[in-house]
Amino acid sequence: MESSPFFDVRLNLPHAGRISRRLLTILHGDGHDHTDAAATIAQLVDLLDPFYESDENPRPDKAARVRLQAAELGRVFVDQVEVERLGHDRLGQCVRNLFECLEFGREGAAISLRAGEEPGSMQRPR
């Protein structure tokens, strides 16, 4: 089985923090403020907020822990997006970007489709 193309990006927790805020903004803009998905993304924003203003990741041991926690929240978020039927192309693109910033690019390319990213999106890796 051939694997789908994906972007292989180095860990970037500050940018992951920006993307988590973007996801929350998208949900609010879509009128989904009081959903389980919005609550999960709020948790992700809180987790990544200490790194948001920084241009660097924390110490490697802390970065590794935060990376895994963030990815788990991202997975829960996508499950909730599916159940609550909130997905669309822009939301899915942000999910892919989040997972790329967490060094889970391959997973992000797959999971973003569940969050609504269009398979033929110009933003997807080819």
Count of DSSP strands: 0
Class per helix and strand makeup: mainly alpha
Low-confidence stretches: none
CA-based gyration radius: 14 Å
Shape: globular
Question: Could you estimate the helical fraction of the residues in percent?
Answer: 55-70%
What fraction strand?
Answer: under 5%
Distance between the termini: 17 Å
Please write the string of helix (H) and strand (E) elements: HHHHH
Number of helices: 5
Output mean pLDDT: 92
Report the major sheet: none
Number of domains: 1
Describe the structure.
With 126 residues, this protein is mainly alpha-helical. It is 65% helix and 0% strand. The protein contains 5 helices and no strands. The two termini are 17 Å apart. Helix 1 (13-29) packs antiparallel against helix 2, helix 2 runs antiparallel to helix 3 (60-84) and helix 4 runs antiparallel to helix 5. It has one domain.
